[in-house]
């Protein structure tokens, strides 16, 4: 990528982020620009090394090709093994639900693609190799998007902490224990909500969360009880107990605040892995405000981040469907052509 295009992408990303950081596009543009810059630096280092240690052009080209090949392969092997190990830990500690298997499935997928590539090379299976080449586009799209999501959500978490004083702090609910008590993950959210409320004396704390099919009472009721036990003033707490999704959390809370004449920006409080998506929903719903996250156990993060990324892709399903269909078109065309030949 040219230096000019890299600068254009970087400047555009910064401008968009300055206007509203609650979307992924600035992160995507800055990630592409950073990748281009990194490759330019590597190219410069290889070129400098060639000047200091004169090598034939062929050897230099081979060195550059090995760098481009080995680094992604080794990184993919490390990523795949890490995800598989994390998936096993998740299943042991949290159960075998599909959500808890995401990191395991992702790790198996990464290692499986590498294994198929090795098979294609070792057996000279041309059709399989061509299919893998055609998969570079869609896999790269999903992979680059995930990297951008990880990087930009980390940047956003710092930006959100500097948000102006809110009129309301919204603690978003999550599942309760079978006895209706608040589990550690939800307790962290409520604690951060109460701590944040203490920093803004003019704000109210909204406990938002409905009652799931397997819950003995609403999440909001349990959250209010827990918040009161750790020092939240009852007169500054409001309860929204009808929502079942994050979007409903925010929509119904907006209506609750409007009914009470409370206006101004809000600050949604959730878990760290969920904060960026909550912020994107605030933007989509036209609600002024930001989202911050309470810390989550490290072993829980990989599966949780994968789940949130998939939810983010779903939230923008039209754009992503068009992009993936376009990138998959060459592979589908090749498959159709192979059937026609037979």
From TrEMBL:
TM regions (residue ranges): 62-90, 102-122, 128-152, 318-340
Gene Ontology annotations of biological process type: Gram-negative-bacterium-type cell wall biogenesis; peptidoglycan metabolic process
Pfam families: DUF218
Domain of life according to the entry: Bacteria
DUF218 domain span: 168-311
Keywords: Membrane, Transmembrane, Transmembrane helix
GO CC, any one term: plasma membrane
UniProt cross-references to CDD domains, sorted A to Z: YdcF-like
Protein name as it appears in the record: DUF218 domain-containing protein
